[in-house]
Amino acid sequence: MVELTLLEYPDVLLYVDGKWRAAEDGRRIDVVNPATGVAIGNVAHAGIADLDAALDAVARGFAVWRNVSNFDRYKLLRRAADLLRSREAATARLLTMEQGKPLGEAKGEVLFSADVIDWFAEEARRTYGRIVPSRARGVAQYVVKEPIGPVAAFTPWNFPVNQAVRKIAGALAAGCSIVIKGPEETPASCAELVRTFADAGVPAGAVNLVYGTPSEISAHLIPHPTIRKISFTGSTRVGKELAALAGRYMKRSTMELGGHAPAIVAEDADVKKAVRILSFNKFRNAGQICAAPVRFLVQEGVYSQFLEQFATAAAGLRVGNGLEEGTQMGPLANQRGVEAMGRMTSEAIAKGARIHTGGNRPKNDGFYFAPTVLSEVPVDAAMQNEEPFGPVALLSSFRTFEDAVVEANRVSYGLASYVYTRSQKTAADYANAIEAGMVSINHHGVGIPETPFGGVKDSGYGSEGGTEALEGYLIPKFVTQLHE
Question: Which residue in 300, 273, 313 sits closest to 393, CA to CA?
């Protein structure tokens, strides 16, 4: 067993106006290692005075950063990406200690985040406007894109580097400054991300990092006149509250909220391939992924075959401490997740669901829940309608294309969706019929930096990937001039 000590994990500070500092009132929050359930360090807890300091800093930072040329912003962001890659091992270890995912997954998250910075760096050089032909002689018309202003961003604990980097890099690439509310449960890896931008030379105030009570921070930052844009990743319930608050103050917002992704396996699919890809992506990060497949809809002709192979794959996963070699799935990030998985699984079984593997806590210490496969889960079970956000897969069979589409679109979520079929026509028909921001067919292709990432319905609006992501931080300004 890997022994973790307090000395291995840093005391995490706030980053305000170019300085790492404790909270003014000295408050701190314990950070718990989910593999053991034991506190391993702590993080500074920002109060109102700290938030006001961050607001003053982000305003000054914007005044400086907006006037840095696109090309110079590109060069600085590229330096930050290179620094993050050079610090991969240390950052990934902190990530695993505080979040629980296997070390290999943590390293992948860090390297992927460096790619995100590179992508936004390149996009910073291509913030083009356009010439608009005029209707009258002597009139010039053009559109320029300008940074919207200081940003308040709120990031979750499931991907503490990957989620924060999209917001920071997107804002900086557009010329915006940012105050980011990092995840209190997984603060150190997020702080190391911010450190790469600071060490790369981002001017004081352009990036600020705070931790604390989420409701207090959002209630103070969002209405403040300094803040011009909100970006939030998290639950649909909280997202709706923040979107309403942003709307009250006419703040532009990007909301990347919950998911309850369907994975449709047609009877002509390559079942072995579908099992391999879908089982990996279902249980990656212990299922704590908004775009993870949850509701597996398998056509009758291959249902028994898929169910048997999928349950076998789930049962064969090695669950343990993410720092231990060979671990394939780590613990959930917190005790809340364990309790939610147990409650929702028990309710589904009580309503008639069949359990094929898992459904229990495989270890007495830490926040573990076994990879779980359920079938015949009734549609009125909570897990069929609420995002479970854990290592539980719900399998059911369908007969016709129409049946699958109705079930795929039944819930209020619409983030990611997955389809497996050998038919080009069937693939196109599903892509057209599914209500989701992303449809991935015969592979797991969502979430890369250069493609849109966002949903519809209760899964939110706006994008955190592709060229669409940068547009959320820019405002078009139309200029028309009569030459006399």
Answer: 313
